[in-house]
Design a protein that fits this description.
- This is VanZ-like domain-containing protein.
- Keywords: Membrane, Transmembrane, Transmembrane helix.
- The chain is an all-alpha fold.
- It has one domain.
- The protein is 78% helix and 0% strand.
- The protein has five helices and no strands.
- α2 packs across α3, α2 packs across α4 and α3 runs antiparallel to α4.
- The longest helix is centred in the middle third of the chain and has 29 residues.
- The radius of gyration is 15 Å and the shape is elongated.
Amino acid sequence: MPKQLLLIWAIICSGIITYLCLTNSSNIPAIDFPSIDKIVHFCFHFGFTISWILFFKKELKGQHANDYKAYLISFIFSVFFGITIEILQGVLTTTRTPDVTDVLANTIGATAGVFSAIGFRKLIDKIIGI
């Protein structure tokens, strides 16, 4: 898979997450399910981290030592992205507020993404062609 396609995919995922996290919350249907907000944050950052791992693994050419760089860069990027989104919710929106437990859910999702990518490293390498 070409790295440009992986980059475009990661940027699209990032954009969708940004939009959904910063849009007026009244535009999003309410779902009555306990802790749904935290589950959504977990899933967003799980997917965000995986998508950036795919790109960085391809960018770094799949060398074993560079695999861990891809995991680390993607994890750090996900955590800082999540913190930034929470700050922007407080600054740019009137219907959302920053929440430290959202940052925790984001971080847990990013961690799960890294460990999943490590666990499925051979499959991921085959999919992205390294």
